[in-house]
């Protein structure tokens, strides 16, 4: 069963890496988080550890419900439904994500487990989204996907203390809120949420 | 014991059923959109109507228009003999996947040639789009075959089905490869969001544009060929990835059960396709490579799972 | 005379015989074709010159592959190069042909230089120029020497076979030559270079290090991809075919590299399989490419144009050439059961088998990706083949040239007919050829390591051909005999009546969609100007030529323009030069002598 959720995580990761539609971005992110939450519950059940249940709960409330809701709202307010002018266009970012997969498979394939590799993949995808997008909203998704990757690190053998994880999750939520406010401000000031505009601020 | 005759027999059944699949797809779509829709047998009526009509050919056309449709249909028929439908024997002399894929390319080839044969402006448009997309889809198809070889140790589709039947677990690789194959199915058969099969609008035309100048018998042959191609792809995806229930012996109850399950699985796939077609609008032509790139990444991930990651 | 050249005898091992056979199989129909084709040049150029050069070219190619000694190899190699150079500049009244001929001459000299260096180097190590002796003392070549020989061979033979980035002469020289010569050059002469490479890599060198074999695979894939993308945007039919030849050479090279990779890992069975795949593709490509060049030649003969945008609708007037070209197109588009498919299938199969069995993951990853790119090349070849056929032969004439057609002579038809027949024959009966080749070349590996059951071809393709033919006849008969009338009308224009032939898709338009993705690699640029009319101006250049060749040529030109100042035109100055030179020489003799 874990295989199904891993494949959902990978499919959504690939979609996030190149899509230009906000709707697909948000729903794949929500699905991805849901899959991670279910994975956590499953692991908690097998290892009989409460730690995993808390992780699942945090992921569910924050990433499956709260953040998509916030972003959906702000998108409706800002009327952004797609991102044009990507720095790396859709086709090549999808190909890029397959390059990541090959690199991970070849270099990490033999001596680490599946969760860890998937986590590395998500971190790389998140980094690509952060670098390759111009709009603030999509850039935020980069952070969120990286955070998802870190959760996968945690449920693999790399143990991160729960308190750190909880802190991180809250931080991401706060980040989302702050981003929301900043995006509104940017939009009000510049009539766009393209962050390249901020370069005009320099003297 | 060789099962070639049986394969030819079940191929015949597939050929006869292929318009039915198309009719069912249309019906499901109609029901989803909230209207009654034509009968599932409507496609048969359309084909028989075409067979009663005279054929009109452009004066500028050549032997391609004359024999191209025949070639397309004969290729489709040959392919349908090479795949398992409801029965899979242990020993088969046909069924090399690479051969099947290249044979199906023959239908594309006939379509593409017909597109420019009558010196119509629309035909060329369809041809160039079709060739563009099929060029990009080629590596994905190759990697899918490669994945199947990694997973099941053979290139013969019958043996793949048999081996998969005996395998109890489903891996993440299987799921990823399934999705990837599904995208290839959509691209190769010119369904939404690549091409809208329901319209004759310049913006959406790929398949329809190429056959715009055919009529009567020629149109019948080429339409039947593309329907069989669609049915072949669905049968392949069903029998490669979810083969449970397929019959391995000639016992009557097993065959009936296999047939029932096969139809159920095909309907499930058709339902998904219908859902996609109802929910998603046709995307721009230059968005289509993105979709193919997604399926490329997926199949790369699948291969990594089965080959490089223990 | 010959006895002096062949004092070491003639080489008759399987490799030589295979290549000699390939050359003969293609050359005979092409020679027949030549007899008809040269009538195009009546009253303009010398006909005897063409036939003589073609014959010398064929003979020298055969002699290259059967020569047993490095010296004779080089001699015949140079004869081959020079003859083909004279064929390239055969139509010397056109300036462009001279230019491409000179470029070709320079590249063959680079090639010849590296080959001579390689044989000299081999002589230094093994003490012999005899091929068998070199092969027997191959254990003397080791370490860095292997790398040196490898690099010299790849550059030397690569410049002749058109590996990227040494390919730029190929799409210029092959279209410039008369079509019979370009059929030979593209079909066979490139294969002679591959023959040399195979001999060096398989027989002279005891082993090839893994990274070198993988770089060979990569080089092959890059050549294939780059060439096919460039082929896609050409509108000159012969240029398209020339690029497509380079693509096939790249594919063969990748397969050879793959075979060496497997050999490194001791996977001898699939190594042999990949090697046979490469050989089979060499044979098949020779057949279908010379057929396509021959039919392009007959188009040139009949219309006087090789620009696809001026052609179209040739089917109605030259049915035989169209059918021949159709078979060639099906073959290059890898439609079963024609021969292009037969070899493409086993090439892809060897990639699949290989990436499943190579033990190290990074090497397997490279093999997997290379396989996928080779498949993309196959898709591109499909595109390019259909483009060249559809635009040239189908539809309606796009210019007056395509309407006024000269009758092609019977000899040309006969040549093309034989080649087309071979395309079908080698495709349908490919399992037998593969089997023969596998047993023939298994001697290159120690016999115990080969598992013949794994690579035994099944005879599926024969059955499929039977079924397909049967259903074609049945469906065709039913469709013919259903008693419905066939009416003739005009092409439907969606309500538009005044359709003209200029409204058809052109060669540029047909390959337009993919330029969106690949225009950088193709050096393709498009300018659209909208006034009351819409003007579209698109141009294609070879990226490598523009970025790498042109700067070098410019530097040399600027240096020589400075050097040229010493030419004063006055006799006494030249006398001074002579004295200076004499003095310098004497000084040199005095100091170093």
Mean pLDDT of chain C: 88
Query: Percent of residues of chain B in beta strands?
Result: under 5%
**Helical percentage of chain C:** over 70%
With helices defined by DSSP (H or I, 4 residues minimum), what is the helix count of chain C? 23
Largest sheet of chain B: none
The topology string of helices and strands of chain B comes to HHEHHHHHHHHH
- What is the largest interface, and how many residues per chain? B-C, 80 and 81 residues
Strand content range of chain C: under 5%
Question: What general outline of chain B do the C-alpha atoms trace?
Answer: globular
Summarize it.
The complex is a heterotrimer of chains A (203), B (310) and C (593). Chain A is an all-alpha fold and 203 residues long. Chain A is 78% helix and 0% strand.
Q: Can you put this structure into words, describing what you see?
A:
Chain A has 203 residues and is an all-alpha fold. Chain A contains seven helices and no strands. Chain B has 310 residues and is an all-alpha fold. Chain B has one domain (4-308). Helices cover 70% and strands 1% of the residues of chain B. Chain B contains eleven helices and one strand. With 593 residues, chain C is mainly alpha-helical. Chain C folds into three domains: 1-206; 226-243 and 254-445 and 463-474 and 506-525, no CATH class; 543-592. Chain C has helices at 2-5, 14-37, 47-66, 70-88, 95-126, 131-136, 144-161, 170-176, 179-204, 210-232, 237-264, 268-303, 319-332, 339-357, 361-393, 410-428, 430-441, 452-455, 460-480, 507-510, 512-522, 543-563, 571-592, and strands at residues 486-489, 524-530, 534-540. Chain C has a two-stranded antiparallel ribbon with strand order 2-3. In chain C, strand 2 and strand 3 (534-540) form a beta hairpin. At the B-C interface, strand 1, helix 3, helix 4, helix 5 and helix 9 of B face helix 14, helix 15, helix 19, strand 1 and helix 21 of C. Strand 1 (55-58) of chain B pairs parallel with strand 1 (486-489) of chain C.
